[in-house]
Amino acid sequence: MDIMVYAAQAWLNLTYRGRIGYNEIPEDGITGWATMYALTRALQIELGIAVTSDNFGSQTMAACPTLSVNSIPEDITDSNIVRILQSAMYCKGYSPGDISGNYTVATKDGIQQMQSHAGLSNTDGVATPLIFKALLTMDAYVLLPGGDSNIRTIQRNLNRDYYPAIGGLIPCDGIYGRNTCKAMIMSLQIKGGVAVDGLWGPSTVATLPVLVYGNSNRDYNYLLQYALYANGFSPNGFDGLFGNGCRTAVQNFQEFCMITVDGIVGARTWASLMVSAGDTSRSATACDCSTTVTAPRAATIYNNGYRIVGRYLTGGWKEIQPGEIQTIFNADLKIFPIYQTSGDSAGYFNYSRGGVDAVKAIVAAKKNGFKPDTTIYFAVDFDALDHHVTNNILPYFRGIYNQFTSSNPGYKIGIYGPRNVCSRIGGAGYSTSSFVSDMSTGFSGNLGYKLPNDWNFDQILEYSIGSGEGQIAIDKNICRGNYMGESSVIESSGVTTSDIVALANNLDGIMNRLGITFTSPEAEIVLINTPLVKISANFSVSSVFSEGDGLLVKVENGQIVSAEGEVFDVTGAFDIDGATLGAKIASWEGIDFSVSMTTTPTGTKIRLINQYNAEYFDQIGYLTEQLTIEFKSLNEILLETQISAAFDDILEWVDENSGLILGICIVAVVIAIIGLLGIGISTIAAAIASFASALMTYGMIIVFLMFFTNKIFEEDIT
After folding, report:
1. pTM for the model
2. 87-97 in b/e burial notation, b at 16+ Cβ within 10 A?
3. Per-residue pLDDT reduced to its tens digit, 666-695
4. Spatial distance between the Cα atoms of 557 and 467, rounded to a whole number of angstroms
5. What gap in Å lies between CA 84 and CA 98, rounded to an integer?
6. Which stretches are transmembrane (predicted)?
7. CATH fit for domain 286-494, picks 3.30.70.1560, 3.20.20.80, 3.40.50.300, 1.10.1370.30
């Protein structure tokens, strides 16, 4: 906690609490976006802007004053503006002396320090609107942990040479990203005399010079050296000269990007340095498509210079169709497989989903006859931010990797996605080859990130080719040649039992959540078998959907979709690790299940049935997992244990059978699930609910009854 940041937060809330357009913030002494947004809104209130926002936009810029040690405000409004500036300085790590409302020499010194850190040649200590705007961000102007001092030099030099024409200060934290990348594009636009918008287009390209060894165009040479270093190819310093080091770096970069290696920096090399897609007009030998490749379309693909086609293993209408692979081979084309079902948002990705998708991909690849060593590219098809990679995508690929490792299918793991996603997954060791979605040039994971070291396919343009029956929409892909796709397949060996078991154990359902592992279909796993209750699990496969006998309720993703008859209604909590099981089950998002109850003369059975569509298997259509809880009737219990059983034996069983505790927990889980439904109640259900909510007590009552009955039996005999 920083005491001055706390003071700034406290002053903000005290001054602006209740004012229209201001959002109160936590007073925790920790700088964050919430505090910066609050400072921005406070400034807008002081400037008389009617509708405030978190953004320091053009209206705020136009109204913002220039402040200096020579312009000390006299009224409270201007004084508060200075306090906002001073509060922002503390949040950025620069001391203004105090939050006094007076632009003191200490305030000037703090602004000068910031200007120096940012690389500005003019460190006059004057807070212009652009300086004010820079203070109201989380951008750092000092080297951060993990930053590169050479990148920081580039950032400071860009600020020095092109501020304020590039729209303000860029961070000087040593981390290359979209702001630095856009600043370099803007710098090229400034030099070329075109509109400065940070967008790469024909007008920008038209102004670019061709740079060759020994040229004397120092300003462009500097920008070239910056871009080379940012892309991972050091020119051996930033001196504004196109010498041997710069030429070698250019040649190595050209070879890496699969463009002509000549050491000359023309439009194509500039494009590859500045934007992820590079020059989209360059020729390519690979493509991918979501449309079935028919014979006419295959001919179109071949005639346009393509030799490799990417197709989808799953995905309904876009997946590989029967006979399609042979059609591709007949046209002298190769094929590489892509796996994607959804994957268009961060919420899709997690560890469990990775295990399931791994099995689905393996099965689909086998179904289509792909041989061992085939690379399957798993898709991440959205604008993933870095925290999405950390929290969602890395666990997802860890799930894929672990499943591939345990099942050993012989296939290799590839990844399709933006540059940053591919680099981080490959860097973690979860993939061996990247298929980069570079045509999405505005993606956060592309702009400001270098091409992954393990890239093999580089997707640069979406367009249509051919006409009539041969017309097809494709994505143009540059192929690096590390993996060239498959030129043949083998006869499908079909789905094995191990494939089905792997799928059952990876599905994110009830059994997975309870830690139950299957070994084979239909085999019963007995978890608890006592005189009171028997609990078992099994899974099966079938070609038809069956909801089972005695269906009462069907739940999909936590929502009741159908109900028949009366349903259990249970009150009472089952506390495990400080949380009720009801609350735990309520948090199990994504589980679909049915609750089934049947009664027999010997007791009552409750089944939790979880059924999955598995149409990607040839032999089956559905996989069903089932947890069965069988409550035995009192007569049955007395019959099984025998009236003459000794009291000590029964008591010993109750004391030593540790599995009974697990039985209590699992029964409680079932009853808690049923209790969440809350639709109605039946006499039998009420009895079972009462039984489950106090199972140990009930068990002791049975012991007592057995003991009492045994005593009567003994007395009758005597």
Report:
1. 0.77
2. bbbbbbbbebb
3. 444 444 444 443 333 333 334 344 444 434
4. 45
5. 11
6. 660-679, 686-708
7. 3.20.20.80
